[in-house]
Design brief:
- It is a single chain.
- It is built from two helices and six strands; from the N terminus they run βαββββαβ.
- With 112 residues, it is α+β, with helices and mostly antiparallel strands.
- A four-stranded antiparallel sheet has the order 2-5-1-6.
Length: 112
């Protein structure tokens, strides 16, 4: 099993949800976050003073899927979500040792 932590621009969330649904990801967790990467934010003028805005709004989507589905999701996200500009996001991939469904005690991929 793999845990995918996908950080994207907020306006791409619906596209990502469509990809995850079509790849049979059973559950997702979505968090609104702030941060920056290579782009380091942007400069803005307000009342004649220049401000650097370096914490940009992002969305973090987490899901745990079977290994076969993980690679398909990564490929589709890279192909369909990209704009070619800084700030498109990142995907972090973690190995998941086990999962347990609390209600039934089911373990492994069956718990997903």
């Amino acid at each position: 099993m793999k845990k995918l932590e996908i950080i994207i621009k907020p306006e791409k969330l619906e596209d990502l949800k469509g990809i995850l649904e079509s790849c049979k990801a059973n559950g997702i967790m979505i968090s609104n976050i702030m941060g920056y990467g290579n782009q380091k934010g942007y400069k803005q003028m307000y009342r004649g003073t220049e401000y650097t805005v370096n914490l940009l709004p992002k969305v973090k989507v987490e899901t745990v899927v079977a290994e076969a589905a993980a690679e398909e999701i990564v490929e589709r996200v890279v192909k369909e979500i990209t704009t070619g500009n800084y700030g498109d996001g990142k995907i972090f991939i973690y190995d998941v040792q086990d999962a347990v469904r609390i209600r039934t005690g089911e373990r492994g991929e069956g718990a997903l």
